[in-house]
Design brief:
4 copies of one chain form a homotetramer.
Chain A: H1 4-20, H2 35-41, H3 43-67, H4 75-89, H5 91-104, H6 109-136, H7 146-172, H8 174-190, H9 194-201
Chain lengths: 202, 202, 202, 202
């Protein structure tokens, strides 16, 4: 099967998800509260919107970079990709929950932090499963040797360990967590995906 | 007419539908109810989200697999495809109704189960109509002979009989129904669409 | 400019619009009203959803058929196409208004019928403007001679006269109007767009 | 990296955003207020919808025109493009806020006007950053010489100065501001993007 429709469908889902994030931003023109105080009170929504936009954007860039190296896809890749997209579509939900409970404060913030961590961890694991399958079935345009494949997977799997760690920090300080997420995703702006680097190293 | 735009439009609709499913998930940060109890209470929404994501995902994979075999499309295929997409766009509605009435319990659960069955049956019938038309008008890249065409249609039509049966089970036990839907769609993860298999068997 | 991105963007808008139509369908699991009576009461929403899905679907098929004949697009075509898409994006709004006031009954139904007519008339006029510009600037793959161009425009412009007429009927009987819309769009299932026919007649 | 998926993803986001604008239009069939008075009262929503549709449409046309000149994209272009899209996805939010506070009147209208200006300014700056990077890294199909590049950037950067000026006018008269936005975007209907003109001038 060609990878064209897999990319087109993924682009569609990612585009809708990244746009829906902004639906959580809204103000009420009626009512006693001034717009300025509404904006101040909703700062967690704006911070969470910007962070999750960035998170989904990085997923898209990495998805693009990875599948640019793919020769052909099989049925398993399609379903693993659906698994990845399922976790991606939960991001607006967990972002909204995180922002809501950051705003409200209280003990439930912990669970909201955990929900956000689960969405991110689900994406990281799905992405690693896709990479592992592509490497094992030698579906890349230029197959990696065993050592390079192991290195690529190890470097890529870092995310799956990182998200639980960031979530653990978030249980203590949600604000530090937002910062760590931003830093971790900021890393991807300057760093290629492992697979890309490894392949182009050859 | 080329099949490119039919695929692009279908990918768009399927991508929006599959993403909108997650809009039914939401929590309230304000109010007396804890987040944990909200999540517990909403388990039917999460289960229905995962199931319907899977259902629409399977539709997408099968749509991809079927149209990869198509040489050209005519006006009838375009309208039959619109009929399929119409039923697909009702999935978020019937998923939300199913989840809501599973949560609320009571006699209306039966009707919600039936609504969900109607959406699925509508998709199965539309898909079969598309396949039948493609076979009859010999629009496939490699036309099947009459015997293979009949086998493909018969194997494919199984879904149109299966959904009413699963719905009947759901009238007795909605939970068993969710399991049967999951199993039936899980089958497609490992099984090719009939048309694909038949063609590649030649 | 290539017509590829114009088609991709239009497909995207049409796919989102056609999917959003279903957002107007919803039921409440909580509350005293039974699901059956909710569905009965909401029949105008279901009828309006099916009709508007069909209306947007026909727009998509005709858009596809028209642009398949186009050689290249200029800046004017892009903005006329945006005008068409603007009217298309008002369809969920005017559909929802129509369904709401059909349900509520009363004198306001007349205005809701007019709103729905305006959305449809806006689309018909935009479509005719696109066709006229394509013909005048000879942007089609196989330019029509003056006679054929005039015929194509006249046959196509019928819609711009038809919608006000159907709307006028709707002011007397909204139900007859729904039927006339369905018939008028049903006509396109069997009838090619004028431009297609004229070109292939040559 | 190829520019294909960048264009497809951008088209997806722009298509969803431009369609979501219409979600701010709605009427209530129940309640004492007549449809006519609802429509009258909501005129800022209709005006803001039409204006923002136009604004996003112009972004799409310019995005199309600019990337049609691009040979290849690097990781920086992808992230700058994400920055542009982030500002684009805030348009439905700031449009809705603008319309709401225009309707309600009062001192908060100033802040809503500023929010709308920020969304537009964010887009203009992001677009200019993309153009600057494309010129500096010579990623265009036909690189401009230094003089032409400077001219293109200067002409393009006009928008980044114009939006604050229009916003300043809006603090005095929001209605004059709507008119100025319309005029400024109307300019793009007849005027090519600087880069396009410069290149085709050669």
């Amino acid at each position: 099967m060609s990878r064209g429709r897999l990319e087109a469908f993924s682009d569609g889902v990612l585009a809708v998800v990244i746009t829906l994030l902004a639906l959580d931003l809204h103000t009420r023109a009626e009512g006693p509260e001034s717009l300025a105080s509404q904006l101040r009170e909703q700062w967690p929504s704006f911070a969470a919107f910007a962070l999750s936009f960035f998170v989904v954007g990085v997923i898209w860039v990495n998805h693009h970079a990875l599948f640019a190296l793919v020769n052909r896809v099989d049925r398993t890749v399609m379903f693993l990709n659906l698994l990845l997209l399922m976790w991606v579509t939960t991001i607006p939900f967990s972002t909204s929950a995180l922002a809501g409970f950051l705003r409200a404060g209280g003990a439930d913030t912990h669970l909201a932090v955990a929900l956000y961590g689960i969405s991110n961890e689900g994406m990281a694991i799905s992405f690693t499963l896709i990479l592992r399958h592509l490497l094992r079935r030698r579906l890349l345009l230029r197959p990696l040797d065993d050592g390079a494949a192991r290195t690529a997977l190890r470097r890529f799997g870092v995310g799956t360990v990182l998200y639980p760690a960031i979530t653990a920090v978030g249980l203590v300080s949600p604000f530090l967590m937002l910062l760590l997420y931003a830093l971790q995703n900021g890393f991807y702006v300057f760093e290629q995906t492992p697979a890309t680097t490894s392949t182009s190293d050859r």
